[in-house]
Amino acid sequence: MEKLELEEFYRLRDIIYSKSGLFFDEKKLYFVEKRAEKRMLEGGYNSFQDYYRALKFESDPNEFWALVESLTTNETYFYRHIPQMESFVEEALPLILQEKRKAGDYQLNLWSAACSSGEEIYTIAIMLKENIPDLARWKINLLATDLDRKVLAKAQEGIYDSRSIKDVPRNILSRYFKPLNNGLYQLHREIVSMVEFRRMNLVDRFAMRQERQKDFIFCRNVLIYFDDASRKMVINFLYDALNKNGFIFLGHSESVGRLSAAFRLVKFKKSLSYQK
User: Fold this and answer.
1) Helical (H) or strand (E) element with 243
2) Which helix (H) or strand (E) element contains residue 249?
3) Spatial distance between the Cα atoms of 222 and 258, rounded to a whole number of angstroms
């Protein structure tokens, strides 16, 4: 197949950026080329020019998002980045619960804004069940969104392989997972039923402006795919979605420092967070 020339790469990159907010610099040319080649072979496109025109004019509306899904990684597993999860459940969560109990407000809203195949949001759901003694009094709203349709479908199934559950504590594994005959594990329906999954593009202004009154937002390891302009826009959307004193947790290599002065940096014992 023909080589992706730099000018063609720019055109392809720009259309990806304009619709999804994902940004790839010249160092990613080979990566983008190989992913596009695979999509072209599967779709029967003969040249990058033909493929670009199909994306631009949406001759196949699903193809653009199939390409975007192939360009993002979905590296995740249960209890990932456990120090941050422990900061959430041991320090941030008690602060919010205390405020709400004093106000007589027993509704807790949490959003996993790049949920991948669901391990993060399900870990949070399990932690809530394990650490809120009066859970029965609370209305818990757990929203999990992602751009990738395939990982959302997997998340809704709640079936995981041994790698996904490798860091799950044994007592939690026995309590919330059912081993299947083929080496997979089925998450109990009581946990699966706690979560609403929805497809969402984080640079979709209309969709993002619908989300409000969140107490916690987890948006880990997704901002790395955006340029500064898109990062600022997404961070502003997430800020608006939070309740006063709500927390946002980002990936370890991510920060709002250069993007927004509106958040307060909170240093927990084991990790950092940002508070509205």
Assistant:
1) strand 242-250
2) strand 242-250
3) 16
Alpha-carbon distance 246 to 214, whole Å? 7
Distance separating alpha carbons of residues 232 and 72, to the nearest angstrom = 20
- Counted residue by residue, the chain has a size of 276
Radius of gyration of the chain from its Cα atoms, rounded to whole angstroms: 20
- Say what the pLDDT of residue 211 is: 96
Q: How much is the pLDDT for 135? A: 96
Beta bridge partners of 216: 110, 247
What is the C-alpha to C-alpha distance for residues 260 and 275, in angstroms, rounded to an integer? Answer: 12
SS (H, E, C) 99-160: HHHHHCCCEEEEEECCCCCCHHHHHHHHHHHHHCCCHHHCEEEEEEEECCHHHHHHHHHCEE
Strand partners, 35: none
User: Rounded to 5 degrees, what are φ and ψ at 185?
Assistant: -130, 130
115-144 b/e (C-beta count within 10 Å ≥ 16 → b): bbbbbbbbbbbbbbbeebeeeeebebbbbb
3-state secondary structure at position 227: coil
Task: For residue 49, give the H/E element and its range.
Answer: helix 48-57
* CA gap 8, 10 in Å, rounded: 5
CA distances from 276 to 71, 235, 244, 246, 247 (A): 32, 12, 6, 6, 7
In 3-state terms, what secondary structure has residue 184?
coil
Mean pLDDT on 102-111: 98
User: In whole angstroms, what separates CA 225 from the centre of its chain?
Assistant: 12
Kindly report, residue by residue over 155-184, the tens digit of the pLDDT: 999 999 999 999 999 999 999 999 998 999
pTM above 0.85, yes or no: yes
| pLDDT, position 252 | 83
